Amino acid sequence: MASPGIGKGRLEAFSDGVLAVIITIMVLELHAPHEAELSALLEAAPAFLAYVLSFIFVGIYWNNHHHLLHSVQHVNGTVLWANNLLLFCLSLVPFTTDWMGENHFAMWPVIVYGVDLLLAGVAFFLLAHSLIRLNGKDSALAQALGSDLKGWVSPILYLVGILSAFIHPYLAYGIYTLVALMWFVPDQRIERLLRRER
Amino acid sequence: MASPGIGKGRLEAFSDGVLAVIITIMVLELHAPHEAELSALLEAAPAFLAYVLSFIFVGIYWNNHHHLLHSVQHVNGTVLWANNLLLFCLSLVPFTTDWMGENHFAMWPVIVYGVDLLLAGVAFFLLAHSLIRLNGKDSALAQALGSDLKGWVSPILYLVGILSAFIHPYLAYGIYTLVALMWFVPDQRIERLLRRER
Amino acid sequence: MASPGIGKGRLEAFSDGVLAVIITIMVLELHAPHEAELSALLEAAPAFLAYVLSFIFVGIYWNNHHHLLHSVQHVNGTVLWANNLLLFCLSLVPFTTDWMGENHFAMWPVIVYGVDLLLAGVAFFLLAHSLIRLNGKDSALAQALGSDLKGWVSPILYLVGILSAFIHPYLAYGIYTLVALMWFVPDQRIERLLRRER
Amino acid sequence: MASPGIGKGRLEAFSDGVLAVIITIMVLELHAPHEAELSALLEAAPAFLAYVLSFIFVGIYWNNHHHLLHSVQHVNGTVLWANNLLLFCLSLVPFTTDWMGENHFAMWPVIVYGVDLLLAGVAFFLLAHSLIRLNGKDSALAQALGSDLKGWVSPILYLVGILSAFIHPYLAYGIYTLVALMWFVPDQRIERLLRRER
Questions:
Q1: C-alpha separations of A148 from A123, A131, A187, B2 in Å
Q2: Which residues of chain B does D20 touch, with a Cβ-Cβ cutoff of 8 Å?
Q3: Beta-carbon neighbour count of residue B168 at 10 Å?
Q4: D149 touches chain A (CB under 8 A)
Q5: Using CA atoms, how far apart are residues C158 and C58, in angstroms rounded to an integer?
Q6: Which of C57, D48, D58, D130 lies 20 to 30 Å from B40, alpha-carbon distance?
Q7: Neighbouring chains to D with at least 3 Cβ pairs closer than 8 Å
Q8: Which of B87, B58, C26, C10 is nearest to A19 (CA)?
């Protein structure tokens, strides 16, 4: 079928659907303990910590995805497949979260968890740049992304986190958490701070 | 990325998606008995009762969330993360429901179930007040919430329910059910009743 | 919170979300056999047959729900909770389907399956009539429902099916299938046929 | 109920929801290994490969479904049930993927996987033609589908893949992958290429 124009609205709706399912089915991996004691619940603490981190990451990606498409006018086939690549990477988060939580943050699960986040970051980068190529370097999106500091720092921190896991997995978990916290701080204040430092 | 305006519509769509998945995947924890006898089904009765209560609570939150955002014009980053906090608390409901149902309403599961509902109530409060701060104290939302009696009584009842679980877990279950029933009664009649009492 | 107007659009979106999850998670109960032989697959045939029937029923309910809300202007709290009751009954379909399929259409699972469908039919009736009460007896909806033959025949057939299960469960399965097939036949032809018979 | 006009928007929303759930719950079948070693992860490689292929196929169907309905004005009951048939075939993908992955691409699972894809292709064909019948042979849709080469080649390749599984299952997997890759290449270039070859 010849490629007609693609609706941005339906791309957002499908992505929202996939992200909503990803963020929610992760809880199915949090198996309720068979005993009714509080101590049994505490044994599920590592799985819970992994769940919290992943919930925040998927929430951040939804937020960023929302911002990315908000100022965009046009969408094409390349954008669609870059978006699917991002959704694919994020669809693996329930798997990597489960492996990391079940194994109490052992080295390899923590590394694979970070690699998946890194790949998602790369996919997001590809999505952003396929959108800029389509909408023009003077578009509102391109100007907004011009000061995209977090977008550049995140993958570098993921990489540092992955490598640090070889020293101690908790170090990696700490760095991943740092990336998550970084996204909580409102952007504009950071940017003002950075301008002053320059 | 600099924070552009956030679409209220997409916040609603994402929340609807997450709540729809939460309310539905709970049924996956209702494991079908291996025997085909009615007695085998009755053994699943506690899990079923827990499911019914949770279905109603998530339904109430969806209803309240709907009302809360209906009269709102603007949304910002704080609102978005308060909303994510609410969704996180509610995403744990399938887990706490499963634990409570599987252990036939034992003390600790019933307490943890109530604590999760209490936290969801606090998150809803934060969401409501971040919306008021953004939309102004004279907004339609602020005036509607001005008489938000149920919103104040619910967390107090949850707390009473949690504490009463130390006496007997069924007492707590009863109080949680009371909160659910309270939300069924149409608001306006309650308000008229209260005005007369004053 | 005082009850402001409720958006019909968001009620549809939430219902679509819940029905989409219900219709899809049922497949998770179709456990893939451990052996790679075709004979192993055939052992899953009863579970598959139960899945097919339930997929059609949820599809029919989505279709009818779609039609019901299409011609409607106003929605209120009663409609919302009648809708939640319908979604609750349908949310149990994955459970009853699993029980019926796993036990190869034994008597009690087939009866409970039918009772759930009957309750969903009653909830749909309540939803339709709460909509008519709100939108008026002269509304397009009320006139469309005036000739709602299938809506009346279905619950009666479910009841006959449930009772026939005491004779033989396959009889009940056949009658449930009949109800499903009845909904496939386009309405207008049936109505013309009935007019001629009169 | 007499059949009023059916909203295309809600058909798209429901389909998006179902496809979003299908594409995401497949990851639940990717069970995280109990050991924290990289070798344990590699044992999950066949299941992962099956997941990747299925993710791409469901993504392609979402993309095609999007294109198909984009240029359409009217929708009726036949379209709705052709759409449900397509969703049903695709809802079985998590099951066939799991069976194929768990059995390391053994013959019968690979055949059944292909048969499901073939049936989905047939359902898509029925959906497309029920849309053309409704919207007219001169509609934008009919003209777009007039050069629908991939739509014709895909089912033939699926059939070749299914038959080749009797020689070696990996051959079938390769042909299925070929179909997936074919859909990645932008349509217009292929068409220009084909025009030159003529």
A1: 15, 15, 9, 8
A2: 17
A3: 13
A4: no
A5: 15
A6: C57
A7: A, B, C
A8: B87
* B41 lies within 8 A of chain C by CB: yes
User: Residue D54 has what DSSP assignment?
Assistant: H
The answer to whether residue A40 is domain-embedded is yes
Query: Tens digits of per-residue pLDDT, D165-177?
Result: 999 999 999 999 9
| Residue B182: alpha-carbon gap to chain centroid | 13
Number of structural domains chain D divides into:
1
Q: How many CB atoms lie within 10 A of CB C156?
A: 12
Q: Does A188 touch chain B (CB under 8 A)?
A: yes
Distance to chain C for B130, nearest Cα, Å: 16
Q: D77-91 and D107-135 helices cross at what angle (nearest 10)?
A: 160
C-beta separation of B17 from C14 below 8 A? no
C80–B64 CB contact, under 8 Å:
no
pLDDT band at B55 (very low <50, low <70, confident <90, very high): very high
Over chain D, what is the mean pLDDT?
Answer: 84
Tokens of D70: 């984009």
Q: What does the pLDDT look like over A16-60, one tens digit per residue?
A: 889 999 999 999 888 888 898 999 999 889 999 999 999 999 998
Residue B14 sits at the chain A interface (C-beta within 8 Å)? yes
- The domain in which residue C59 lies consists of 8-197
Ramachandran quadrant class, A105 (left: phi over 0; alpha: psi -120 to 50; beta: rest): left
Tell me the residue type at C119: L
Instruction: Sort out which chain C residues have CB atoms less than 8 A from B26's CB and list them.
Output: 91
Q: Three-state DSSP class for C111?
A: helix
- Does residue D2 form part of some domain? no
Measured between beta carbons, the chain A residues lying within 8 angstroms of C21 are 21
Q: Is the pLDDT of residue A3 over 50?
A: no
Inter-chain touch C64–D1, beta carbons under 8 Å: yes
Scanning every residue of chain C, which has its alpha carbon at the shortest distance from the alpha carbon of A13?
A: C13
Subunits in contact with chain A (3 or more CB pairs closer than 8 Å): B, C, D
- Which chain B residues are Cβ-neighbours of A98 within 8 angstroms? none
Picking from B178, B26, B176, B180, the residue whose alpha carbon sits closest to that of residue B110 is B176
Cβ separation of A25 and B21 shorter than 8 Å? yes
In a domain, D131, yes or no: yes
Residues of chain D with C-beta less than 8 angstroms from the C-beta of C25:
21, 25
Residue A134 and residue A15: Cα distance in Å, rounded?
19
By the CB < 8 Å criterion, does B76 face chain A? Answer: no
Q: Is the pLDDT of residue C123 over 70?
A: yes
Candidate from B99-103, D61-65, D164-168 with smallest mean pLDDT: D61-65
ipTM above 0.95, yes or no: no
Q: Which of D198, D66, D174, D61 is nearest to D110 (CA)?
A: D174
Tell me whether residue B13 is in a domain.
yes
CA distance B21 to chain D (A): 9
Output phi, psi for B184, to 5 deg: -75, -35
CB A97 within 8 A of CB A113: yes
Question: Can you list the positions of beta strands (E) in chain D?
Answer: none
**Closest partner CB to B32 (pick from C7, C13, C98):** C98
Q: Give the per-residue pLDDT at D166.
A: 95
H or E element in which residue B92 lies:
none
A88 to chain D: nearest residue by CA?
D55
